[in-house]
Amino acid sequence: MTQTSAPVRPVRASSRLYGILIGLSTLVVLLQGLWAGLFVVEGQDYRDGWVEVHARGADVAIGLALVATIVAVVKLRSRRDLVVGSAAFTVLLVLEAYLGGLIGDHSALTAVHFPLAMGLMGLAVWLPFRAARR
Ligand code: HEM
Fold first, then answer.
1. Cβ atoms < 10 Å from Cβ of 94
2. Closest to 93 (Cα-Cα) out of 20, 15, 22
3. Which residues neighbour 130 within 8 Å (Cβ) at sequence distance 6 or greater?
4. Rounded to an integer, what distance in angstroms lies between the CA atom of residue 106 and that of residue 59?
5. Given the CA of residue 104, which atom of ligand 1 is nearest to it?
6. Which of 6, 14, 85, 96 has a CA between 20 and 30 Å from the CA of residue 117?
7. Residue 40, helix vs strand vs coil
8. Closest-CA residue to 69 (of 52, 47, 94)
9. Mean pLDDT over residues 35-46, rounded?
10. How far is the CA of 98 from the centre of ligand 1 (A)?
11. pLDDT at residue 51 above 80?
12. Is residue 85 scored above 60 in pLDDT?
């Protein structure tokens, strides 16, 4: 009889690590909407403290997504969906953060920053579900 459990274990551990990293990144991205809701008050200037939290949240989300992408590339190479999805997620997060930083001087960029945030949230929810599939 052949034993099949031994080679499966490292992949499972890597999948779990990937799932934790991408799940945390998803949580931080979803929270970005909450922080935005706290600093955007109609008829008033943005509240600086929450803008700062929003900016640091972007750094954390990008860091987690980048590490998740590295785990996917190194340990889960056969999962092309996760490799491509995580890489796209990371690149789009960097673009989102860059555009966000320009909003102060070019408020029209909210027309790109907000919809892109919605797309990122969709991707952020899709990736952990996809990762849970064997
Ligand atoms: C519903 C989702 C989101 C909304 C409504 C939103 C809204 C905004 C707004 C109005 C600003 C301008 C603040 C300013 O005047 O500086 C901003 C800035 C920014 N956003 Fe978002 N955002 C969202 C999601 C995200 C996400 C997912 C990221 C992750 C990369 C992100 C990263 C940033 C960054 C880095 C800034 C610059 C903050 C600074 O000026 O220091 N945002 N966002």
1. 15
2. 22
3. 81, 82, 85
4. 21
5. 15
6. 14
7. coil
8. 94
9. 90
10. 9
11. yes
12. yes
**Domains and their CATH numbers in the chain:** 10-132 (1.20.120)
CB-based contacts of 134, cutoff 8 Å, min separation 6: none
**Which residue has the CA at smallest separation from atom 38 of ligand 1?**
55
Cα dist from 120 to 4, 92, 96, 101, whole Å:
38, 7, 9, 17
> 129 is written with which tokens?
């579900």
Query: For residues 11 and 80, which has the higher predicted lDDT (pLDDT)?
Result: 80
Q: What's the whole-number average pLDDT of the chain?
A: 92
Q: Measured between alpha carbons, how far apart are the two ends of the chain, in Å? A: 24
Q: What φ, ψ does residue 118 adopt, rounded to 5°?
A: -65, -45
Distance 2 CA to ligand 1 centre (A): 54
CB 125 within 8 A of CB 26: yes
Other Cβ atoms closer than 10 A to 63:
16
Distance (Å) from CA 113 to ligand 1 centroid: 7
